[in-house]
């Protein structure tokens, strides 16, 4: 999926990045000077949600202004962690084959499927020209099966086998989920920590 992030395509995304950064700046300026605590982690999580929604999926979730936006709630739900999830994760590591057939995060799965399907349908399952991640997936889908080296199957000499994979709707939605989850958490955490350091070392 690296063609989504060539220097040329990143240039086309830059106006979207600037627009969201300006919204973040305005949001920070308009915070009342009450002397209270400003949760930089939450602000950056909402900014990251807006940013990924725009450059990845063509969505204007406006999480900075609306903390209850559906896209923001999805990010919260994905990373919600409690004791039951810890136990489930431990069991999943112990019995991976069993857990392949169980739906552990059914609500998250249903929400992601509904969101991505609605985007696909709006674009009639064809690239829209936005050059975002969704367009990349649709381009790959329209080219037919994807052929590449297997990470599991090897030849007798140890080299990887060539495998062909159909890019089904479920597989595309799984790619979207990974793109959102990986980009959201890492970006929000690193930028909020940067804010923390700037406060103590201006």
From TrEMBL:
Q: Which GO terms describe its molecular function?
A: heme binding; iron ion binding; oxidoreductase activity, acting on paired donors, with incorporation or reduction of molecular oxygen, reduced flavin or flavoprotein as one donor, and incorporation of one atom of oxygen
The residues that cross the membrane are none
Q: Write the record's keywords in alphabetical order, separated by commas.
A: Endoplasmic reticulum, Heme, Iron, Membrane, Metal-binding, Microsome, Monooxygenase, Oxidoreductase
Q: Pfam families from the entry?
A: p450
What's the Enzyme Commission number for this chain? Answer: 1.14.14.1
Q: Where in the cell is it found?
A: Endoplasmic reticulum membrane; Microsome membrane
Q: Which cofactor does it need?
A: heme
Tell me if Oxidoreductase is a UniProt keyword of this record.
Answer: yes
Gene Ontology terms, cellular component aspect?
Answer: endoplasmic reticulum membrane
The family this protein is said to belong to? Belongs to the cytochrome P450 family.
Q: What is this protein called?
A: unspecific monooxygenase
Q: Give the species this sequence originates from.
A: Papilio machaon
